[in-house]
Specification:
Blueprint (H helix, E strand, L loop, with lengths): L3 E7 L3 H4 L1 H6 L4 H12 L2 E7 L9 H5 L3 E5 L9 H13 L2 E5 L6 H7 L6 E13 L13 E11 L9 E8 L4 E10 L2 E6 L12 H14 L23 H4 L3
Parallel strand pairs: 1-2, 1-3, 3-4, 4-9
Antiparallel strand pairs: 5-6, 5-7, 7-8, 8-9
Helix pairs in contact: 3-7, 5-6
The protein binds zinc ion.
Length: 251
């Protein structure tokens, strides 16, 4: 069986504008996320960025992608709508999507959720404790009862998403807030995993537990079946074509 093909998409803007971010991620966050995935093995990993033609998400590229990972923040509005439509179609067909941190406000996530995806937030370098809600869930494999990140941006409830179909993590922050930080949905044949950690000014994507969860998330989101659906498939079936045509054909 060929290896799972993951594509890490990075907005790649903070890294060029903010010295603090460049110091942590000199080659871009997408590169570090990709490295974390390939180091664990079993996945062919490549990257794409906003700045590439078609944001690196041509139809050909997406057709060769099993799971797409998405990190965006300040340039969500720069993502072309036709590219979003293309990604959306691929998710419905069966491509997995792992949405990271501020990707909650990306066009693709909001379109898939159908809600505003708002949340509360605070940047105070506070501690986050991520509790495992279901130790039997494949995305939590290898994680203890909880793990901690010493310095994070806080995301708090209410998180305006449809109720997750599976809840893998819930976060507690030193300031007292809680947040549904690891959530799963399905849309069509595609599986979607939202994972909260990843603010650009903290070295979150070097953390071993974070890397493990993202790796698990990619494995979980891999396609199990693909259906290239379209409006053309919403067909009128003539009575003569029914499996029991004789039972319903007018006399
Ligand atoms: Zn952030």
């Amino acid at each position: 069986m060929s290896a799972l093909r993951a594509l890490v998409w990075g907005e790649n803007v903070h890294e060029h504008r903010n010295e603090a971010v460049r110091e942590i991620y000199p080659d871009g966050m997408h590169t570090v996320i990709a490295r974390g995935l390939s180091e664990r093995g079993g996945i062919d990993v490549s990257t794409a960025t906003l700045q590439e033609p078609e944001h690196g998400l041509s139809a050909e590229r997406l057709a060769e992608t099993d799971v797409l990972l998405w990190w965006g923040h300040i340039a969500h509005h720069e993502v072309a709508d036709d590219v979003v439509t293309r990604v959306h179609k691929r998710v419905l067909e069966g491509m997995g999507l792992v949405v990271l941190h501020s990707g909650h406000f990306s066009k693709i996530f909001r379109r898939l959720m159908g809600t505003t995806c708002t949340l509360t937030w605070r940047e105070a370098a506070e501690k986050e404790r991520l509790w495992v809600c279901n130790p039997g869930h494949p995305i939590a494999a290898g994680i203890d009862r909880y793990f901690e990140l010493p310095h994070t941006e806080m995301y708090g409830e209410p998180f305006a998403v449809p109720p997750p179909e599976e809840q893998v993590f819930i976060s507690w922050f030193a300031g007292g807030e809680v947040f549904r930080s690891g959530c799963c949905w399905r849309r069509g044949n595609g599986k979607i995993f939202y994972f909260r950690p990843g603010h650009e000014t903290y070295p979150i994507y070097y953390d071993d537990n974070v890397r493990r969860v993202i790796h698990n998330g990619v494995l979980w989101a891999r396609p199990e079946g693909v259906w290239v659906d379209s409006f053309d498939d919403c067909r009128n079936i003539p009575a003569d074509d029914a499996p029991e045509a004789r039972a319903i054909r007018p006399e």
